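Changelog entry

Holo records now carry the ligand SMILES as an explicit input line rather than a separate metadata file. Below, a converted record for potassium ion, shown in the new format.
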Amino acid sequence: MYSHALLTPEQMYRADALAVAAGVSSLTLMERAGRAVAEEILRRFGARPTLVLCGPGNNGGDGYVVARLLRDWGWPVRVALLGETARLKGDAAIMAKRWGGPFESVTSVDGAGLIVDALFGAGLSKPLSDQIVKLSSAVKVPVVAIDVPSGIDGATGAARPAAFRADLTVTFFRKKPGHVLMPGREYCGETVVADIGIPDRVLDEIKPPLMENFVPELPQAGPNQHKYRRGHAVVVSGAAHQTGAARLAARSALRVGAGLVTVASPKAAMAANEAHLTAIMLAEADDALALGRLLADRRKNAVCIGPAAGVGAETRAKVRAALASGAAVVLDADALTSFALAPDELFEAIAETPERAVVMTPHEGEFARLFKDLVKESDSKCERAIAAAKRSGAVILLKGPDSVAANGEGGAIVNTNAPPSLATAGSGDVLAGLLTGLLAQGMEGVGAAAAAMWLHGAAAGKFGRAGLTAEDLPDLISCGIPQNPLL
Ligand SMILES: NC(=O)C1=CN([C@@H]2O[C@H](COP(=O)(O)OP(=O)(O)OC[C@H]3O[C@@H](n4cnc5c(N)ncnc54)[C@H](O)[C@@H]3O)[C@@H](O)[C@H]2O)[C@@H](O)CC1
Ligand SMILES: Nc1ncnc2c1ncn2[C@@H]1O[C@H](COP(=O)(O)OP(=O)(O)O)[C@@H](O)[C@H]1O
Ligand SMILES: [K+]
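Structure line, unchanged by the conversion:
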């Protein structure tokens, strides 16, 4: 448990304090932190002139340890201090003394072949000064950041207002949200988590509600499996000239293991759908009433509405019919936009049957339409998704390079395996279909959302760097997952 937890800087301070209370000295933690960074440097770089930029707090303290060890191992090392040695306190002051070498002031990065960024870590409390911003943009050599690249907010991943661009970031015990949320993830380069001896059991007290996504445990078909036991997913088709999105979703639902999948089609779109469907079934549902009748068959236990559904009253009525059916519901794209002028109507309809799963899959634009006041940049993507889940009564899968799945209990999972090739038309439809197929197989809301995000990213990852189209994705989904690169 908690092996993929993300700790905010505050929770990390708590973990630190609990470890100290359990008998590990804070100076030992700092020594191990610095040693872990120095060892990672040694693994990747040959000896070269190294400049360690140290800030006024414990991040700087870790920096002195790195400087001392690299120097003792024969590297040419310089230390630059932001502030004065006389003002250093506690463990950082002790480690500065142990370094024992000269201190320069933080003015330039000239002459360095490697920069160790130990300016600010968890304690970043205000925006970087103009001088540091300038310095960060002047760096042309590899950067190894201690804990987080200076300027990145560990809680949100935001750059305040700029940050060092690291090739390698070494953090301790667990990652922070800022390591996985954008833009922080990009600024970190490769992120390594080092064990510095903080016992895992401190997490039983902290109970961190955020985590990084990981290889999902998927429903398994046993030898006595029967297609009706694997769920029946329904995907609502758009109008005659907008049927492709629903078929992408339907194909993905089938591929991910739903026993049966039916496309519920308007009468005028039946011919187009019929021409393209084979294993997937087709049923006519011309309006909300007909959709309600189709979903009255309780074996149809998960329904997806939104991909190219059309924006307006008809889609709103179909959403209400889906929500009233008792099946698990995935609301995507047009199903969300259709409620832009009256989001509370949607939330009230969801509240009528609180026991079944509803998952909404907005991208940032759709999110802003439904949750106008939850778009403040100062809030982390996790906080925004959690607030939206609490308000709407649905699981929120807020998409992007760092998709977040959140539930109303305050938990959130950040996905990190999605390559940028997924930014292609129709890939969201595939995600919605995967989610529907997993819900049909009985997965609960946030678990299904996390698994769908992971499968989606893994499928795209199997393709080359360019050329991926949404049509390729369903065929790249294999549920015998390859080894997770994150583990
Ligand atoms: N488990 C832990 O929590 C451990 C933490 N360690 C290190 O300790 C660090 C946290 O140390 P601190 O709490 O001292 O925090 P930092 O060293 O990150 O920064 C705090 C200091 O920087 C100043 N400051 C913050 N933002 C500034 C800005 N933009 N411009 C100028 N000054 C600014 C603050 O006033 C304070 O003096 C971690 O990032 C990590 O590197 C390690 O020593 C090992 C264990
Ligand atoms: N830069 C990116 N890196 C990784 N994944 C991305 C990126 N941009 C978009 N995605 C993913 O691609 C999908 C796009 O969905 P969406 O915005 O609904 O597009 P569409 O409506 O065209 O299908 C989402 O799952 C999103 O998380
Ligand atoms: K740093």
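Spot-checked after migration. The chain has a mean pLDDT of 96. The chain has two domains: 5-209, 227-476.
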